[in-house]
């Protein structure tokens, strides 16, 4: 039976709940722990409009991650779940019995969890992104990182899989920001039972309470979109649809790139371009020379033989495909946005897509999103 945290994810991250079934059973607890942790961080700005309180909550999660990885988890449901997952991964043997692997046992990276906290905290005031590139950086350090963590739980340390996951995560992160624009621009009334006064406070606190437009500033300038016009005219603000179109196009470009890379690898080719994050922490890949007893599912994409490399890349993306599945709801949402003429305030964009289970099953069966 799945962990009770599944109900939490079903309520607040329904696509991740639906996609859990497409992951290998031994990875599902790790997936749930990772997504539940992300939800806890994502909910902090809404629950804590005061900057000092937000800072304390982020620090709580830093301390929680440090203590959990030190095998001293606090009595908090997500921390307990994560501790259980870590213990299970450390005890887990290689899925393919009888094969030798030079890779370490499956585990999760503490530094990636800490990176999620740092990035979430940095953007917790809902200040606009300075550039489209900074929005992509945010998506890489949040949504792509979630996919890297899940890949490591398979376990799979692969240049090719990470590269594809990076593009999917960036698309998903950009879409998450676009989806949040109406709610952040017109937040619900403050909780009058809160001890935090709605008067005064820091500029960051006032920004969280009064609403914000989180589109990149360079795109807003390019489209002559002014924040005050969004507050005044909503969906009819001059330049808003153009700005949304440009940002959504970048998300679509990442999905198209990931799809082309996947298809190329499946057909025995190469991804076609270098991974910009190769060499960074967590993205170090060593050449691996195959032998008769080697485990092909653990090989790096940097195999010394071109023929062997293409075979191993195909094995890697096949094994990683369940982790790539967030591309499906991301693509579906972008299609709905385009159908609505890039009106970000359309109500149906905030509703669950009834097509997701069917589209996800079809994508998984065809091994193409």
Features:
globular, 369 residues, 0% strand, mainly alpha
Write the layout of secondary structure elements.
Blueprint: H1 5-12, H2 14-19, H3 28-42, H4 44-47, H5 51-69, H6 77-91, H7 110-122, H8 132-153, H9 159-185, H10 203-210, H11 217-222, H12 227-233, H13 240-266, H14 306-320, H15 327-339, H16 356-366
Describe the structure.
This protein is mainly α and 369 residues long. The protein is 59% helix and 0% strand. It has 16 helices and no strands. It has helices at residues 5-12, 14-19, 28-42, 44-47, 51-69, 77-91, 110-122, 132-153, 159-185, 203-210, 217-222, 227-233, 240-266, 306-320, 327-339, 356-366. It is globular and about 55 Å long. 39% of the residues are buried.
